[in-house]
Amino acid sequence: MTILRFDDFEMDIPARSLKRSGCDVRIGSRAFDLLAALASRQGEILSKAELMEVAWPETHVEESSLRVNIVSLRKALDGGNPYSMVENVAGRGYTFTVPVTRLSDHRAVGSALRASRTESLPNSCARLVGREKLIAKWADEIGAGITTIVGQGGIGKTAVALRMARLLQEAYDSVLFVDIADQAARPCTPIAEALMAGYLTSDILRKVVEGFGGKTVLLVLDGCDWSIDRVALVAESVADRHPDLTILATSREPLGIIGENVLHLRGLAVPEARQRIDDLATFSAVELFAERVSMVAEEYAIDGPRGIELAAEVVRKTDGNPLAIELAASRVADLGLENLVISLDRPLRTLRRGNRTSHPRQQTLRANIDWSYNLLDGNMQSLLGLLSVFETEFTKDAAREHYGFAFARSDFEEAFDGLVVKSLIAGQQRDGTYAMPRLIREYALEKHAEGATATLSPSLEMEFAARDDEHQRFPMSLSTRASMRPFTANKAA
């Protein structure tokens, strides 16, 4: 007997029955066969030829028949959401993206238990391109205690944490998800109440700690940077009293707790300039862009040398950032690939339209970076704007030499290290240099030009001008040096 459970669906293949939350879902026989094939091989990519053989084993049909039935299936499962359980993989076929559990004859008890374990986890239907091996490795290594996934905004921390939680859920009595930034979405639990309380008292902390007694729990805390000091205190209090509890957090900086295991999530793999690409899957950033384009603008499917070349240029200009790549794919239908590449010289202006149902901080690239910027103190905001004039890698010593005079020494050190910790400056692995991601740099340049950082005194203005003239000592390009004076003038104004 083959019975599959995914999300809130239960599919009895021999009985040809599909139920959602106990209610029958009516789909055509061809769509049912396609769903059975895809769900039975969750995560695998089935070619169009394979799927047509499954649904029309004795009949030759056009590929359009397959597309019609896939559309029908998507509508039955999730209303045709473009980020569907059934995703198109550009040039390769289709894949089923959500976790699937095979149930035995005692499935009624098992189903109820699994439902209670997963009911607090948000749906996450989109396939995580380029992350499968990393997620499996991290999920295998995670244990009791506090683990924090850290990375730049839009890098995919929440999606990775949710996929890890679904892989791990069977080992726990309960899985609890709390979105720190979205008060309306927080479950009514002691820990959610502690995070919302105006003042954190010992009684509130005691209720949180007692709320986890006697159960094995996986607690997922998403977006901790929004209230990181409070989250750190609550998480540490709970972990200290419940050593078997597993806390999986996401944040743009570590919680800073003793014993915290920090996992750094990087951007997707991006080809070097003019690097040859024979297969879209060679670089995960290119694969993601091609897949998302096929979902929102199928007539612009990425194929042929020129299309792949343009896709590679898009992902280079977006730093391999998954959110930026998805926003770029959403603009292909109205801009075309050639114009999209040109427009990405100013990505903040181009990547301004996303999924309306996403959290506001994920709907545009600017809103996503605003979220990080608004959490910085004044010194960090000032230094971010000043460092944006470095077009390439720079050392901390160079940054201190040219801009340290604008701060007290301890303030400069704290601000610089804070920008690194908060994922706004990327530290290089070997040579001790740092770099500002392209998307962050454009944002910081705008803020610097607007005078969003602290106004310079006349003496500091003269100091900047003097250092600007020392071309032989500046580790910047000529164009960057030339760009500094207008910003300095704006600051003085």
UniProtKB/TrEMBL annotation:
Residues in the DNA-binding region annotation: 1-98
InterPro entries associated with the record: OmpR/PhoB-type_DNA-bd, P-loop_NTPase, Sig_transdc_resp-reg_C-effctor, WH-like_DNA-bd_sf
A GO molecular function held by the record: DNA binding
Keyword Metal-binding listed: no
Gene3D superfamilies: P-loop containing nucleotide triphosphate hydrolases, Winged helix-like DNA-binding domain superfamily/Winged helix DNA-binding domain
Domain of life where this protein originates: Bacteria
Presence of the UniProt keyword DNA-binding in the record: yes
One GO biological process term: phosphorelay signal transduction system
Name of the protein in its database record: Putative ATPase
SUPFAM superfamilies recorded: C-terminal effector domain of the bipartite response regulators, P-loop containing nucleoside triphosphate hydrolases
